[in-house]
Amino acid sequence: MQERVLSATSRNLRQREKAGLDVRALSHTLWQIAQAIIVFAVIGYLIWRGADAMEYNWQWYRVEPFFYRVIDGEVIWGPLVRGLIQTLKLASIAGVIAIAIGFVTAFARLSNSIAGRLIAKWYLEAIRNTPLLVQLFLFYFVLAPIFGIDRFWAGVLCLAFFEGSFAAEIIRGGIIGVDKGQFEGADAIGLSLSDKYRFIIVPQSLPLILPPLTGLIISLIKHSAIVSVIAVSELTTAGLNLIADTFMAFEIWFLVAGIYLAVTVTMSFGVSLFERTLNKNKR
Question: What are the pLDDT digits (tens) for 154-171?
Answer without folding.
Answer: 999 999 999 999 999 999
